[in-house]
Amino acid sequence: MGLRLVAIDIDAASPKPIFHVISPTVPARILILGVSQADLGEPAWEIMTVDWASRPTYTASAQIVLETEQVLASHEPGSEIEGEPYDLLASVQDNQEVSSVTYGEVPVGFQQTHPQHGPPPPLRTGVAYKVAVMGACFGQATFTA
C-alpha cells in the first residue's frame, strides 16, 4: 500500500504552534506526529494513535508498512510479511483522521509518547524545528519558533 504525501501548514504565531495537515484528496490519517529541533533526532514532543502506542518505539529511519486487517490477521507477531517484521506493520485502521494539531495538546484517539510524563518543553524563540507525520500519510515541514 502506498503512502500519501501531505502538506503541513504551520501557524507558528503563538508559543503553541498549530500544525494543519493538508491532504489534497482524502482526509489525512496518521499514526504518529512528532516535533523535534531541526538538527536533532530526539523529539521534543510526539503523539501516536492509542492503538499504535503500545507497539515498539520507532526511530526516524523506521519504515511503517500499512496493511489491511485481513492481511495482518493471517500472520502472527514475530513473523514477516513481504520481508517486513510483523511488529513494524500497521493496519490502516490504526490510523486516526486529523486536520490540525496544536503543540502540546493531545487530540482524541492519540496519546503522548514523548515526553512520557508532563507537558512538552516550550519551543525556543529563533530555533528551527521540524514537524513530521507518519502513517497512511507522510509529510514534514520546518518552522522557526
Short recap of the structure:
With 145 residues, the chain is mainly β. It has helices at 50-53, 69-73; strands at 4-5, 7-11, 18-22, 29-30, 32-37, 43-49, 65-67, 80-81, 84-85, 89-91, 96-97, 100-102, 110-114, 128-134, 137-144. It has one domain (4-144).
* Largest beta-sheet characterization: 6 strands, mixed
Q: Give the strand order of the largest sheet, numbering strands 1, 2, ... along the chain.
A: 1-15-14-5-6-13
User: What is the number of domains?
Assistant: 1
Structural class category: mainly beta
Count of alpha and pi helical runs: 2
Taking the alpha carbons of the first and last residues, their distance comes to 35 Å
User: Hey, roughly how much beta strand do the residues contain?
Assistant: 35-45%
Number of strands: 15
Low-confidence stretches: 59-63
Radius of gyration: 15 Å
Mean pLDDT: 79
* Helix fraction bin: under 10%
Tell the overall outline: globular
Return the string of H and E elements: EEEEEEHEHEEEEEEEE
